[in-house]
Give the backbone structure.
Amino acid sequence: MRVGIVGGGASGLAAALAAARRGAKVTLFERSPQLGRKVLASGGGRCNLGNARLDVERYHGGDAGFVRGVLSRFGLRESRRLFEELGLMLSQEADGRLFPRSSQARSVVGAFELALSRARVAVECACEVSAVRPGARGFAVETSKKGAVEAGERASPTASGKALAGGGAFEFDKVVLSCGGASYPQLGGGDRGYRLARSLGLAVVAPTPSLVPLVSKDPWVRKLQGIRVQAGLAVSAEGRTVAVSKGELLFTAYGLSGPAALDISRETARALSSRPSVDCSVDLFPEFSPSELRGLLRSRLGTLKPAGADDLLIGMLPDRVVEVFLGAHGHGPPQARGARLSPETAWPPGARPPQARAALLSPETALSLAQGLAGWKLAVCGTRSWDEAMVSAGGVELAQVCPETMESKALKGLHVTGELLDVDGDSGGYNLHFAWASGFLAGAACARR
Ligand SMILES: Cc1cc2nc3c(=O)[nH]c(=O)nc-3n(C[C@H](O)[C@H](O)[C@H](O)COP(=O)(O)OP(=O)(O)OC[C@H]3O[C@@H](n4cnc5c(N)ncnc54)[C@H](O)[C@@H]3O)c2cc1C
């Protein structure tokens, strides 16, 4: 059985290994000089390769039943076995995220490279597949060799080095499209996979950026630039909630990032495709219900007897967040506490001096603070570009593919894996898990007659 794999990213690596270990003669084509470039960049270079809390709910796309079918055949147990066989020890974080114990993404790619060379997979790097056609014996694959290895890029050690001057033509019994999605063009993302899929008769759901930071022009967001908080987010359009998330939120110069923002970006991007902006509500105390937060502030009012709102909130949030929050909610700047005041929130000329604010905070003020803290409103007017989108939503329609084998229902012998399919996961290792899982199932199926 001769198998051609198009794309040497996460799912292509898993597909190549699974097929070769089952006796297939495998050739892996990768247009970049280096295998697994996104894997190398993943998890900030640490590679968040899976999640112990694997759950179909963490995936989005055309069909939850399809994802359930994939995860039931290649779940946590199977991924742990794959990594064990590769010699990779894992470490687990409190939220379930799995990393290689080395904390180095390059050990993941390195382990695959070693295993591929032992399984005698022919690796053609810097080699782009320009066309795949159903042929006399399965499929004809045309390639075009990219020139020299780009400056500063290391060629994969497994690459065959065989010159394919001007490209070459190959014949395979089966072909796996593992070309990834449109995100991060600087790491190999693009529309090549969608084009190849369409040329073979597969319908593609238009890709949109996902796990991408959100843009907001609200001035207070910029004032919080660089600050991370735990938050709950809810995005709504025309009064209807379209997405909610909970987790770390990072304020940036342009808007919102961090897992909590990234996880709602898919629905936000879709909602923004038909309107100029959507509403986002930030809950700065997602661990409390609204009534618990009210109760907490009321009790602090009694015990702390604060003169100002900033005293009431002391120790509950970073000082800077309190300053900006109070400014944004018309509570005026915090009381002068020397170094705690920043130039933007210092008393404006002619305003009452701080000593004049000695009156105790009223219960009504505490109540309105609680409301604001649980639902700080801002307008989101866009997402960052494909250059910053970690994954692509959309892709090859799932109804055309078998979840057991990733094989096209219409064109036998053609398999599709990973991000090229209409499946995208939340942040936290879910996307790489789906890539390993779909790649493994496709590779294993390819080796069968
Ligand atoms: C910066 C960043 C960080 C990320 N961090 C994480 C993380 O920590 N955890 C997580 O779960 N997910 C993470 N992701 C997402 C994850 O990396 C992807 O979902 C996953 O790599 C998808 O695997 P894939 O095999 O489908 O595609 P890819 O890994 O993108 O691989 C596709 C490969 O195919 C090649 N290719 C395309 N067309 C052709 C062609 N015609 N001929 C030859 N080669 C071709 C491309 O060059 C590419 O190397 C991250 C993504 C990015 C961009």
